[in-house]
Amino acid sequence: MSKFSKIIRYLAFLLEVLLCYVVQSTPGLSLEVFGGRPVLLIPLALTIAVFEDEIPAIAFGVICGLMADSGYSGPVGYYAIMLAILCYIASVLMENYVHTNLLTTMIIATLSIPVIIFVQFVLFYIAMGYGNVWEYFSAHYVSRIVYTWAFVPIFYAVNRFIAAKTLH
């Protein structure tokens, strides 16, 4: 693959990241469903990772994570660290052990998205001593997990198209 193709692919991915950040961060652009808004940058990072080698997967995981961190006004670094780790794992799995397709990507997302969001809930809600934890989790976090997961097929299709067109 030529350097020019890689540059075009990475620029397309960066454009996606910026677009998702704007949609995710602008009030009214992403709909709230059953008390939760999606974290669009999680499925985006995971679907980029399944088409990339380890280093670009980690880089896009960190970029998406830092954007998500800045959009959620929490401590900077949580999403960046989690997405870097999970994107690395996704990239290694796809490169060495399983075939890259929608089913395997959905399985990775089904395992990754709840982990990221539940650990966030534990660290930044339960650990802070807030009350009514399970009511709050079921009212806001379950819908966030499902809503975030629902975007995986869309991002997979877009990123598969980008990867296929720039592999020449």
Reconstruct the topology from this structure.
Blueprint lengths: L2 H23 L15 H9 L4 H18 L6 H19 L5 H25 L6 H17 L2 H14 L3
Helix pairs in contact: 1-2, 1-3, 2-3, 2-4, 2-5, 2-7, 3-4, 4-5, 5-6, 5-7
Explain this structure to me?
- This protein is an all-alpha fold.
- The protein has a single domain (3-165), classed as Arp2/3 complex 21 kDa subunit ARPC3.
- The chain is built from 7 helices and no strands.
- It has helices spanning 3-25, 41-49, 54-71, 78-96, 102-126, 133-149, 152-165.
- Helix 1 (3-25) runs antiparallel to helix 2 (41-49), helix 4 packs antiparallel against helix 5 (102-126) and helix 5 (102-126) crosses helix 7.
- The radius of gyration is 16 Å and the shape is globular.
- The chain starts with a helix and ends with a helix.
- The mean pLDDT is 87.
Runs with pLDDT <50, length 5+? none
CATH C-level = Mainly Alpha
Q: Count every helix, treating DSSP H or I runs of 4 or more residues as helices.
A: 7
- Determine the fraction of residues in helical runs and give it as a percent range: over 70%
- What is the percentage of strand-forming residues? under 5%
CA-based shape: globular
Count of extended strands: 0
**Category by helix and strand content:** mainly alpha
Order of helices and strands: HHHHHHH
Beginning-to-end CA distance, first to last residue: 6 Å
pLDDT average, as an integer? 87
Taking all Cα atoms into account, the compactness measure Rg is 16 Å
